[in-house]
């Protein structure tokens, strides 16, 4: 019967060509002079069986071909394609302090003048004034309270990404409480340290917890916090320096 003989011939031809593929390599090199003969004979059989190997029923041949191909080529699925960056995101990343609105920039710089001028005046005079240091602490407490109120106001509008929940509103009230505690200390050193902690918490709120702020505002907040913290630390340094000088004077008089 022809219908029963054709699958038998197809299987025999397929197994013969598959074995000849395995023989190409070191086994044929061991044959010496018969290498060209065997390679020619194997090439002839492969050409003869080529139409049969294209049948859809011969699945092992396709699997074997893909396994061989995997050693030489990398699958395109494994290559991660970075999504194209939108124009708005690229513009936000390119924003700098110069792109901030003029009123916000100038008012923020003007708000830093009392912080910088007070320790600068004491450094020029060469004397530590407790009244000036207390004035700086008072102004710092007012600034910290303003930053807490700004966070409260950011959460109130309906279209704001920050919801007026317990977390956002309670975090905004922490800053005025820290500012009030700083004013209750009798020692200026403790008051300045408390204000430094409060300024760090306020910066963490604006940078990490509220990412929807504009980039220019975040840069402005970072630079403003750095200037305020350095001015408070400068006042503490002048206080310790004045205390050290007074101790040496007392030892010299004795």
UniProtKB/TrEMBL annotation:
Keywords recorded for this protein, A-Z: Membrane, Transmembrane, Transmembrane helix
Transmembrane segments: 104-126, 166-185, 191-210, 222-241
Biased composition, class Basic and acidic residues, residue ranges: 89-99
Alphabetized InterPro entries for the sequence: DUF3429
One Pfam entry name: DUF3429
Residues covered by region (Disordered): 80-99
Protein name per UniProt: TMM69 protein
Higher taxonomy: Eukaryota, Metazoa, Chordata, Craniata, Vertebrata
